[in-house]
C-alpha cells in the first residue's frame, strides 16, 4: 500500500498496523467451526460468544469498544512503578495516550490470528499478546502473553490475567443484569475458574442451565496460577474500576485458591501468577484459555491440551495451515500484488458470514444469530468455488424453506434445512426472495454439470400464513409440523425445478397498479419497508423477468441435451401456466390477480398430491412469453428521461402508487438498484446500458465515497421506507452500499461494458484500502459512509458477489453445464509487466492454475484467445466470442491430485 495505515507483510496476507489504538471501531474476528465466535480490538476488547444466549464476555456494540472498561486484560505489577497493562487498558496508560507517545504499539494479524505488541522503553518492557481460536471441537479462545525485559536492569513482576465473565444471554445485559448475577455459581480450580449459572433467564423460560464459562491459565511451562480473584467487586475494590483494579494496583494477595465455591456475584477470571524476577533480555510467557462448554469441565484436561507455550505454538501453526489451505482454493495474481492480497481477505469473508451469520461482531449488534433467506443463497455463491463439496446438499436443503404460494420461511434454523415459523408471528414477505435461488442453483449447475439436481424431490414449508402472508389459516397448528401435506395427510414433495418455477411464476401475477410486481414487505433493500399496499419494485420485476427467460432456456436445454420431453408438476400449477389452456391478458391487472387468487385457493390449506406430466417445450414457451411481455412492458413504461437529458429505469413506486425516480422539486431522484437488474437481466438494450452508465455517473457517483445507493430524496419517505429516516450518506440512504455496487459492476461486465465495470470494482478497492478515510482492516465493508469510513466490516454478502465477479467475469472462469468457459475481461492495467495474469481455482474437482498470456499488453476489446495448453500440451477448444469453451471430457482425464496448469494465449483480434 502506498497510503498510510496497515501494510501487508510477505505474500500470505499478513498485515501490520502501527499504533492501532489511535483508531476507533477497529475489531478483528476469531472463530472456529465448533461455534466459538470472538471479536478482538487493539486493546483486546470485544466479545466472546457461542450464540445469543451464551456470552462469555458481555455483548458489545462498536461504541462499547472504546467506552467500556471491560476487556481481556493482563496486568503486571512492576516493582518501583506499579500497575501496567499489556493492552494499554489502564487508567494511567489511557490518560497518557493523548499526552505523549511513551509506548510503541503495533498490531499484526493473519488468517486467523491477532497479535498486539506493546513496548515501553522507559520501563524496559515489551509485551506480545497473541490471540486465536483453535481449529478444534472445543469452544476455546487462546491468548499467549510473552513479556520481555528490554532494559538494562532486572524487573520484579507480579502478573495477573483479568477476563470479566458475563456468562449469560445478551437479553440480560439490561433486563435483570443484577438478578441474573445471583444465578452465578463460581468454582475455583487449580488452573482457573468456572462459572455455571444455575438457571438461564431468557425468552425460552427459566430453565436449569448447564452451560459453563471458564477462564484458565498457566505459565508457559504449564505451571498453574497461585490464586484467584473470582468476584469482580473484590478484584476492582471499593471505588476501583476494571482499568484500575485495587487487586493489581495494591498488589494484593489472591482471595481464593482451588476448591473454593462462591455464588451470587458478578464474576471475573482474575488469575494471579507467581511473581518473577526478569533479567535483561529474559522473557516469560503465560497462556490463558477462555472456554464455553456444554457442562462443567475438567480443568486439568484443558490445561494439558492448551495451557503451555509449546501447545499454544503448535495449535497456532495448525490454525494458520488450516485457514491457508481453505483460502488457497482461489488465488488471483494480477499486475497489482497488493490488490491480490486484499482479495485473500475478501475471500475469507463469505466463510465468516457462514460462521457468524449476521450477528456477534460489534457492528452487527442486531438479530439473534443465524442467517436470513437471502443470505443462504448469496453465501452459497462463494462457497461454490471455495467449499464445493457441501454445496449440493445445502442447495437441496434450502429449498425446503419454500412455501407452495411462492414465498418462503423467514427464520432459518441453525441446522441445514431447518426452517422455523416466524418467531414473532408477524406476517411479512420480502418480494425479492424468490429471485435468488435460481441464480445460485444455475451457478451450481453450470459449475458442476449436475442438472439432475433439478429433478431432486423436496418438501415445502408450511406455517399459519397463506397467500403470501395475506391471510392466516386458523385450521393449521404447529403440532402438524412445518411441511405441506396432501388431502390424504401425506407430506407433499415436488422437484427442485417445481420449487423454482413457483418462486418465479407466482410473482409475475402478483402485481400492483402499474403492472409491476408488488413490493410487499420490502425487496433486497430492507429499508424500503413502508409501501406494502401499493408499492411496486420495478427493479425486481426486471430480475424475475430475466429469471423466467433463463428458465425457458434451461427447459429447452434439458430437452435438447438430456432428452427430457415432459416434466412433472403439481396439478394446481397448471393454473399458473395459463397459455397451456386459456391465456390471460397480461395487460389486465385484474385478470392476473384473479388467476393468482384461483391458484391460492387451489393450494390452501393442502394440495391434492396429484401430478401432471406437461410437455417441456410448451412450459418453456409459456415462460418465454411471460418474460418477453415483462421486458417489453418495462422498456415501454419504466424508461424515464429528465430535464437534463439523462435517461434510466425507474426502480420503484411508493405506497401512494407514485413513481419515485426522476425530477422532483427537491432534486433528481435515482436508485442504483433500479439500474442493476435491468442491465444484468438484459431488459436494458446495449444503447440503454450506455445511457444508464452516464446517468449513474452524473447522479450517484461520488469521488469521496463511490457509487451511492440512491441520490438524496430530500427527507423522510413514510410511503416508501425507513431507510430515508437515516441521515443521507449512511447505510441504505445514499451510502456506497457495497453489495449493490458490486452487482452493478457485475452487470456491466456481463453486458460487455468492461471499462465501466472495472472503474466500479477499482473504486471499491481504493475506497476500502484508503485507511485514512475507511479506518478498516483489509476486506470489503457492508457500506462506506459519508465520511468515507468502512462500516459493518467482515460480514457482508457483497464479498460473495465481489469474489464471484472477479472469478467469473474479470478473469472469465465460469462453467457452462459442466464445461469450462474461459472469457477474460481483464483490462491492460490488470496484467503484470510481462503481460501475465492468473487465477487458481477449483473446477471439475480439480485445482486449476489458469494463466493468461498477453505479451503485447493488449487492452480488453483488442484481444481474443488464440491457443490453450494444459500442462504444456495443446488442446482443442470451441471458440465462443473472444473466449473459448473447454469440454468437460478434456478435464475429466486430468489427475485430481496436484494443480493442473492451463495456459491461455491472447492475441490481437
UniProtKB/TrEMBL annotation:
This is Cellobiose phosphorylase. The keyword Transferase applies. GO terms for biological process: carbohydrate metabolic process. One of its GO terms (molecular function) is glycosyltransferase activity. Keywords: Glycosyltransferase, Transferase. Residues 103-306 form the Glycosyl hydrolase 94 supersandwich domain. It comes from Paenibacillus lentus. It comes from the Bacteria.
